[in-house]
Every structure is written in C-alpha cells, then in structure tokens.
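Customer ticket, subject: "Can you confirm the structure for DUF493 domain-containing protein?"

Message body: Hello, I'm evaluating your service for our small team and ran a test protein. I'd like someone to confirm that this is what the system normally returns, since I don't have a reference to compare against.
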Amino acid sequence: MEKKFDKAAFKEKLEAVGQFPMLYMFKFIVPMGRENEVGVLFPKNEMVLKPSSGGKYVSTTIQAMMDSADQIIDIYEKAAEIEGVISM
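Agent reply: Thanks for trying us out. I re-ran your input and got the following:
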C-alpha cells in the first residue's frame, strides 16, 4: 500500500527546521539512466551520483539554496513524476 504524502505536515516540519533561504540537501534513488531527469530539476547545482552495488539504481545528492518550504515541496512533486524515483 502506497503511503499518502502529507504536504501540510511536511511544510510545517521544513519551516520548523530553520530560516529561509537555506541550503537544503535533496536525495533521490532512481533507476540507472534516469539520473539526468533529476538533474533537470537542478540546472545550476552539482549532482553527486553513486551507483548501487548491483548497477540497477543510482543515488543522487544535490544541495541547493531554497527560498521557501513551498519551493522544496515543488521539487519533490516534480521528482515524483520521474518513473521509479524514490525520494529520501
């Protein structure tokens, strides 16, 4: 059963963490070959890639300056449209 995303609760947690703008670390796991689809979401940021031991997946880590909790949530919503993506 797929867990429902509670957008309001996540926004509240993000806003409680600190002041915006803030440097935020995004982590995604995607099937090998789809890492560029994540990279498109962060055109001005460096993306660190780490292939899985089996070679089927790649872990992506991106640090980006975010102006608001809504901006972070928007990135996660766009990433969710990538087939096979797992948001960390």
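A couple of notes from the result: The radius of gyration is 13 Å. The chain has a mean pLDDT of 92. Feel free to reply with more questions.
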